[in-house]
């Protein structure tokens, strides 16, 4: 089971190592847009939309890694002062009752829109924009799959027995 969890973690790490570069590219493109508009009087709707696409991809595809490194949003009202055993129970509850059903529902309810978008190869958001809204909509099921895989990995780790080194670290 440990090897499966490590493999699933690897998917999140590889995905993050690729999409993290979108942050740099996004800043450079946005800088070029501003310089082009205000210095040279040139504007490109496609370039503006590319920033939107990169932003969407960065956050949607990076969500699984965010969950892996425990940097996701958490309500710490009870969690912060809870014992390790209680935290494990809260995490299991959160994955099984909240996160996994939410991701499955989102994937289920968004799939018809994604499928239809691919069927018609849905065009740009704005006139003159990138003719690939279907690709951006595909980020929704990709997001769901990546978060579900990472949730499964974390659940596997939560179900593994606590080692003495983990007890000592706590």
UniProtKB/TrEMBL annotation:
PANTHER family: 2,3-DIKETO-L-GULONATE TRAP TRANSPORTER SMALL PERMEASE PROTEIN YIAM, SLL1102 PROTEIN
One term under GO cellular component: plasma membrane
Pfam families listed in its UniProt record: DctQ (PF04290)
Record family assignment: Belongs to the TRAP transporter small permease family.
Species: Hoeflea phototrophica (strain DSM 17068 / NCIMB 14078 / DFL-43)
Protein name per Swiss-Prot or TrEMBL: TRAP transporter small permease protein
Entry GO MF terms: transmembrane transporter activity
Oligomeric and partner information: The complex comprises the extracytoplasmic solute receptor protein and the two transmembrane proteins.
InterPro entries named in the record: DctQ, TRAP_DctQ
Domain Tripartite ATP-independent periplasmic transporters DctQ component: 26-158
Lineage of the organism: Bacteria, Pseudomonadati, Pseudomonadota, Alphaproteobacteria, Hyphomicrobiales
Membrane topology of this protein: Multi-pass membrane protein
Domain of life: Bacteria
Subcellular location: Cell inner membrane
Job of this protein: Part of the tripartite ATP-independent periplasmic (TRAP) transport system.
Keyword vocabulary terms for this entry: Cell inner membrane, Cell membrane, Membrane, Transmembrane, Transmembrane helix, Transport
Transmembrane segments: 21-40, 52-69, 90-111
């Amino acid at each position: 089971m440990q090897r499966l969890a490590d493999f699933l973690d690897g998917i999140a790490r590889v995905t993050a190592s690729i999409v993290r570069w979108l942050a740099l590219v996004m800043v450079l493109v946005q800088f070029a847009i501003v310089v082009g508009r205000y210095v040279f009087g040139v504007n490109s709707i496609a370039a503006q939309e590319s920033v939107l696409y990169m932003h969407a991809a960065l956050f949607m595809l990076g969500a699984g890694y965010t969950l892996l490194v425990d940097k996701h949003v958490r309500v710490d009202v009870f969690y912060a002062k809870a014992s390790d055993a209680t935290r494990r129970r809260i995490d299991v509850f959160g994955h099984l009752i909240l996160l996994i059903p939410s991701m499955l529902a989102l994937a289920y309810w968004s799939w018809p829109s994604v499928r239809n978008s691919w069927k018609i190869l849905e065009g740009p958001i704005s006139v003159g924009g990138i003719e690939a809204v279907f690709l951006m909509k595909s980020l929704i099921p990709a997001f769901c799959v990546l978060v579900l895989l990472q949730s499964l990995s974390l659940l596997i780790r939560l179900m593994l027995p606590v080692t003495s080194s983990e007890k000592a670290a706590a």
